[in-house]
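Weekly structure sync, notes
Attendees: PL (lead), two postdocs, one rotation student
Agenda item 3: pending single-chain targets
PL asked that the sequence for the first pending target be pasted directly into the notes so everyone works from the same version. It is reproduced below exactly as submitted, 398 residues in total.
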Amino acid sequence: MKLINIQQLPVTLAGALAVLTVPSLCGQSSPDVVWRTNAHDYEVMSLAFSPDGSMLASGGADGVAKLWRVSDGALLRIFSMGQSTVAAVAISPDGQYLAAGTDDDEARRTLYLWRIEDGVLLWRGGGIPVYAVAFSPDGIWLACAQGDWMSGRVSLVRVDWTSGKVLYDHSDIVLAVDFSPDGSLLASGSFDRTAKVWSVPDGVLVRDLIEHPDVVQSVKFHPLLSSDVLATGSSDTRLWRVRDGAVLRILESRKTSTVAFSADGRLVATVEGPIKFFSLTGGPIRFWRTSDGRLLVTHPDADARALALSPDGKWFAYGRADRTVVLARMPLWISEVTCTGNEVTLQWQGGTGRYQLQGRTNLMAGQWQDIGDPTTNRIATHRCLNQMFYRVQSLPNP
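Predicted structure, written out during the meeting:
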């Protein structure tokens, strides 16, 4: 069995009489871009998909949040917040509201809630700079990560602005928040090198994850495992079991500024780079397999500062220091090859849901040839009489 690493796929395999799972071999390539747009006048700081995947929100250092239609990149609405940096954006579970956080502590108005349909500002507050925002799954609560050079805190407020509470256990600026899928827990990450997990809505601290080597810039719950698996981004990326605080896995990323799970939880995506709120540079995007922590794909030239993965599992979006927002197809890789006699069975993961299997006998000469018709399946069998190289392409949906 010969393993070949080429641009078209993270891993491409030459079929032979064997059973193979993906090795620890990483593909480096450019993202499969669907569209890109010059989104802001300054750096892109934050991104968020709507729960139905139809809209993408972006926040920039130009004091503006924008709403884009995912299908074609059309600009739908602009939300202005003066000269502040829009460090965080989130769209409510019902798709009706946009929350945004800024660093405008002089005006003491750093948290905004807008109605998307007509762009009306419903309320604003916050007090000190906001670095992350998140809606609870039921849409009742809005959490924000806050801090200045004196302290850090997590604010938990009702979306209707009728009540709330402030959680003060962090000793430095809080950079990240995320709700668990069932809404029972809230995680936070801080400059104090800890991640904390709180119960909702009472705000009781239930877990203190202190074994981080550096600032915790990002936190994200696994989308399908209730409240028990949390990813944190620090100088590496760690997967934690929340119920007992055990470290399940360490991904050898470097200076993780953003961590996210794919919709099915099978992939962890990371952005590497310095703390984006205090730097003008971006970094590479990497995709890891959750089950064993293997690095599958690297986009070394992404220069990403913000990252979001769509809830339908088809797309990822990233924002860059050059002011652009990019929408790309999720990476695609062959996950298993089984050979029985002359029959080769290939299985793959990722992509947008419509695929074309292709093959060729020589990588140095000739062309890729389609094998069968386009398919929505993620498995195919091919009768192979000679050595064959395979790839799977993700096709646009008709």
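Discussion points:
- Residues 69 and 294 are 33 Å apart (CA to CA).
- The radius of gyration is 22 Å.
Action: rotation student to compare against the earlier draft before next sync.
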